[in-house]
Automatic annotation (TrEMBL):
GO terms for molecular function: cholest-4-en-3-one 26-monooxygenase activity; heme binding; iron ion binding; steroid hydroxylase activity. InterPro entries: Cyt_P450 (IPR001128), Cyt_P450_B (IPR002397), Cyt_P450_CS (IPR017972), Cyt_P450_sf (IPR036396). It comes from Lentzea guizhouensis. This is Cytochrome. One of its GO terms (biological process) is cholesterol catabolic process. Keywords: Heme, Iron, Metal-binding, Monooxygenase, Oxidoreductase. It holds the Pfam family p450. Belongs to the cytochrome P450 family. It comes from the Bacteria. Transmembrane segments: none annotated. The keyword Cell inner membrane does not apply. The keyword Methyltransferase does not apply.
């Protein structure tokens, strides 16, 4: 038998550990220290990163960044909370959706040596960081499932799922809505779209929650190791799921993608896995935040619930106001690929521009009284929470539909819902939402009596 020698196994394990340490150091350890030092010196990119990681209210910082003009300078480029600048950067072909690269020198060679084959949402061939022509090819294969018309055909089924989940809630006891409703509704919908069996959905939801920090820069060693372990497990699960559907295809998007790939139409095996994995994770992760943020906002603003009871036609607009006021994604970055200008401000090749979506949504030049939550706001839909340009969110129509049904069904069934102590925001920086949202679903006796007076 040709079993590996113990020394060979030791060397292989040692090499794997060294590679892991290098990946963390280059992508998180060094940026983590640099951003913290920059924040102490007042750098706006450092400050927004550090303050977001600490869970601070960023409203004042949004205004401070905006006061610097269309683009505020940072140590690595620019940051903006101007609505017009965000839209222009995201729509310009002078900017690419990518993280900084290490070049062809020694650092680049070390980074290549330490890289891993495990799929990652911010590494190619992910849709999040690829550009045309590959991005066009990937997106074309999945776009038809997420058109407004296709999503409307899912409306009845989404309503059924929401009602079934609400049937399962005991109104006599406090309940964490993230665990029992906000997570389960979108993961069930996207799982049906991608042919994920019911017995695997809790596992997929857990994968998504554990891998959410993968979008962040500057992770601690502990969180980084947890994310890499989760992504490895998700990669293995996804491979098995694809093999199962290849053997027994169904009437779902992933079976269609597999068929297209096997017919040589557009995707390699790795591209197939990356696209399927991203659609699956993105299909529920941000919607969990949308539902949780929306329930919290409406419960804390009973006057807005009264508006909705009088004008139920505003529920769709309410979803856009939730997206504007407390969006599921804080910011996104773009790398400048050639010297250019944004609203008269020069941007040099190689500079990073952080477009703060949540800040652009509070731009007073676009939104009157921007720090007020108003379900009747006439231009709520002008938010940039889904991005802009060629990377505009593929699932925007699906998220809007799920948000409308999910929020309306919740408050129709439990109009006296109130928040309880113990709510906690997610520790992630890019994704914004609740990790826990405990509520009581029915009013107390005193509240019911007061309401009938």
């Amino acid at each position: 038998m040709n079993e590996p020698l113990p020394w060979a196994s030791f060397v292989g394990a040692k090499e794997a550990t060294i590679k892991t340490v290098i990946r963390w150091g280059l992508n998180h350890g060094v940026p983590r220290v640099a951003l913290r030092l920059a924040a102490r010196k007042g750098d706006l990119q450092g400050r927004i990163t550090v303050e977001a990681s600490n869970g601070n209210d960023l409203t004042g910082l949004f205004d401070e960044i905006r006061a610097h003009g269309p683009l505020a300078p940072t140590g690595i480029g620019h940051v903006t909370t101007r609505h017009a600048a965000v839209r222009e950067v995201l729509g310009s072909d002078a900017f690419h959706a990518t993280r900084p690269r290490y070049g062809d020198g020694v650092l680049g060679k070390i980074a290549d040596w330490a890289s891993t084959d495990v799929l990652h949402p911010v590494q190619p061939p992910s849709l999040l960081v690829t550009e045309p022509p590959d991005h066009t090819r990937y997106r074309k294969l999945v776009t038809r499932v997420f058109t407004v018309r296709a999503v409307e055909q899912l409306r009845h089924r989404t309503q059924e799922i929401a009602e079934q989940l609400l049937d399962g809630l005991d109104p006599r006891d406090p309940v964490d809505l993230i665990e029992t409703y906000c997570g389960l509704l979108p993961v069930t919908v996207i799982s049906e779209i991608l042919g994920v069996p019911q017995e695997d959905r809790a596992k997929v939801l857990a994968f998504g929650a554990a891998a959410a920090p993968s979008l962040d820069l500057g992770l601690s060693w502990r969180v980084f190791r947890s994310v890499e372990t989760t992504l490895t497990s998700f990669d293995a699960w996804l491979s098995h799921h694809i093999d199962t559907l290849r053997a027994n295809p169904g009437n779902n998007l992933l079976s269609q993608l597999i068929s297209a790939r096997d017919e040589g139409i557009g995707l390699t095996e790795r591209e197939l896995k990356s696209t399927a994995g991203l659609v699956l994770a993105a299909g529920f992760e941000t919607t969990v935040n949308l539902l949780g943020n929306g329930i919290s906002l409406l419960a804390r603003n009973p006057d807005q619930l009264e508006v909705l009871r009088a004008r139920p036609e505003l529920w769709a607009n309410t979803v856009d106001e939730v997206l504007r006021y407390d969006p599921p994604v804080l910011l996104t970055g773009r790398m400048c690929m050639r010297d250019t200008e944004i609203l008269g401000v020069p941007v040099r090749r190689g500079q990073l521009v952080a477009t703060v979506l949540a800040g652009a949504n509070r731009d007073p030049e676009v939104f009157a009284d921007p720090h007020r939550f108003d379900v009747a706001r006439d231009n709520a839909r002008d938010h940039v929470s889904f991005g802009a340009g060629r990377h505009y969110c593929l699932g925007a129509a699906l998220a809007r539909m799920e948000g409308e049904i999910g929020l309306r069904a919740m408050f129709r069934r439990f109009p006296d819902l109130r928040l309880e102590q113990g709510a906690g925001r997610r520790p992630t920086r890019i994704l914004r939402g609740f990790e826990r949202l405990p509520v009581s679903l029915t009013a107390s006796g005193d509240q019911r009596e007061a309401r009938t007076r």
